[in-house]
Amino acid sequence: LQAKKRADYLPPAFTINDVKMDVQLHPTCTRVTSEYQVERMGNHGHALTLDGDNLTLREVCIDGQPYTDYEQTDSSLVICNVADDFSLKLVTEIDPEHNQALEGLYLSAGTYCTQCEAEGFRRITYYLDRPDVLARFEVTLHGDKQHYPTLLANGNPIARGDHDDGTHWVTWQDPHPKPAYLFALVAGDFDLLEDSYTTTSGKPVKLELYVDKGKRDQGVFALESLKRAMKWDEDTFGLEYDLDIYMIVAVDFFNMGAMENKGLNIFNSKFVLADQDSATDEDFFNVESVIAHEYFHNWTGNRVTCRDWFQLSLKEGLTVFRDQQFSADMTSPLSNRIKHVRVMREHQFAEDASAMSHPIRPEEVIEMNNFYTVTVYDKGAEVIRMFHTLLGPEKFREGMDEYFRRHDGQAVTCDDFVAAMQSVTDLNLGHFALWYSQSGTPVIEVTTSYDPQTRRMDITFSQHTAPTADQKDKASLFMPVAFDCIDSAGNHYTDDDGQVRDGMFILDTAAKTLHFSDVPEPLIPVVLGNFSAPAKVENSLSAEQLLAVFQYANDTFNRWDALQSLYDWCIHQYELENQAAVDATIWQGLEQVITRESHNHELLGECLVIPSFETLCQSRQLVEVAALNTARSQFCRDFAQRLHGPLETLFKTLETGPYQYTQTAINARRCRNVVLNHLACAGDADKLLNQQFEQADNMTDSLGALKAAQGHSPSVFESLMSRFEQRWNHDPLVLDKWFGLHATTERTDILSQLSLLQQHPRFAKGNPNRVRAVIGSFAFFNTAGFHAPDGSGYQFVTDYLLKLDAVNPQVAARIVTPLTQWHNFAPDYQLLMKAQLERIANHKGLSGDLYEKVSKSLA
Ligand code: B3K
Ligand code: ZN
User: Peptidase M1 alanyl aminopeptidase C-terminal domain: from which residue to which, for each copy (predicted)?
Assistant: First the structure.
């Protein structure tokens, strides 16, 4: 398998301007007739090479005449001796029912649907399946009227009718030229929610949301979210919707979250269906943010698309940034920022330190589906956020306007985006653009020196990016560093040379020093407010200083972060068996945090969360899993016991009353469930757990009780889990929470538990949501089970992946991720993990997806 390189990009030799498709739906033999207007690009004599995968070719015609001068390979159809302009007609047959990879056209529990990004259209018909070929599509679908009363494709319906044999047909026309990855079709029998939206310029848009029969009420929140997103994009970026109709279809079998097909989004039902009983606050949040994300793609992705797949972050980083800003405006900036920083620290930093390390614009790809990563998406969004920070909101908006002015209707590159931003600012973005090509996580080291005689203080920031698997040499990055400086009494200081402006300075060299004079005592540097750059900070502050940062820093994110660092330091003392270092002043300090902030449920709800095992791994090397996990648990227990009084008092003030979905109520529920977990950890909370489960009138609190019981009260956990199962047996999305809880429970017989879960009547190995809930949760989040010292966890996951790979390589390649991150673990673990990776590498018939990730991590 050969990697493609970014540097090898060539423009297409031909383009296709118009596509007419006729699709006769049939479970095992769907017949696709496509007619293309093809045009030669430039002066050359090459044949026309179309991409195809798993297709049965039945007919080739050129300009209406049967044509035989062509060759077929496994992955292409080469048509020789063609004119400069011609029409090409192809008839192919495909088998949706046996398409378990869920790429191309497939059946999701009886509903026909498609997934074409990145390279799935070639599984429907032969085509120039690359994002820089943009064509107008007209699509006619034929299907059984009784089973598939709804027939959908992109754009507007322009004609429909019945055939004599009980089938019917609908023709859809999409006026906007688009790359094939945005093509979609759906056929099924749904409940429909209808609404409408009028854009600022007065254009009416029909909104249609299609869900499984009987689920109409669970679609209401998604539809409301869509309208909020449409309004927000008009208000914030002046961007209006551009078709007469916007459709969203929820399906059960889906490899990812959702897909932004032009005018016809297809969603994993997990990100559409939500109501008070069955969805947590987090589920509601996710529905709103994914609905918005896909909607925002209409401009950032669809109107302006990517020239080639190496540019994926052009649309994904930008759209994630846009959805994050939207969510912050709809809910709360602080908890949003913390949520996204957790993703960076838990997952992106880990990816950047692994063999899969790649820049947000990758250089080499074997299987494109492997690059829909936290790096391209989330680090990509952090890079866009830095533009926003550096330029300020007004200039950023100007830059966006210019980007659309220049590139509407085009397929462009990340460089084009940077150039549009550059055109509105005097700041030289040349150096900044290194973020697109350099991988790895930069570390900012903060060192201080204080001279009591002269009362002068220097604070030096040095940056360093360690070599990564894909790239040895690293240069200094251009980083906006939000900065504040306090003394132990909370006074704020400014630097002598005024390098810090509006609370920020630029670190663009290997090191920079800030000077302070007339300083009464050593100052405390407060660095990277609001996570102003995707970097790690090494700032050796003492426990007292961290508590002072919490008390006095201007930036709330810094305050939260100070406690995270404090917990990390404490857990490290436990690892060193030096518990005594976590002394009375620290416990008192933490007690004051709780009592002083007891009214601030949002801040406290986040501050009382102890860093996850995954986050802790990122500030350690060659992690001794069992030792770290034990140290973390011991610290959690001491935390819960030492602070039991104030936690209990706080808990009592957090009576949340009847369910409401408002930010205040969400914050209170969040805080309450975080505290409940500590109370359960302290022991003796069985009554409380039962009570909360009993009385909960919403899923957040039911699940909060289950999670708190999970690690701390096995018998309560068992009994509540079986009641939960009985109540929710009919609802697969809710049952996924139950599967996930079982799979993440740390117990010695976890592997037999996992086998039982797989035999559960509701488990379906062809459904990615089920597989992720059981196997994915175990591999990603069951620390003790996955990293069992005898290697049994690794082996279990590997056994499963080898079977899954034959069916759904995309999902298999995602779940293998934790194994590929072996570098960060102690040698004994490394050996066991690598042994399983070797097994995968030697497996016959391995997919390109798994091959790419596994071979890289063994190289
Ligand atoms: N663009 C899609 C992701 C497609 C993934 C293909 N393996 C969803 C999104 O980012 O909005
Ligand atoms: Zn996206």
Answer: 544-859
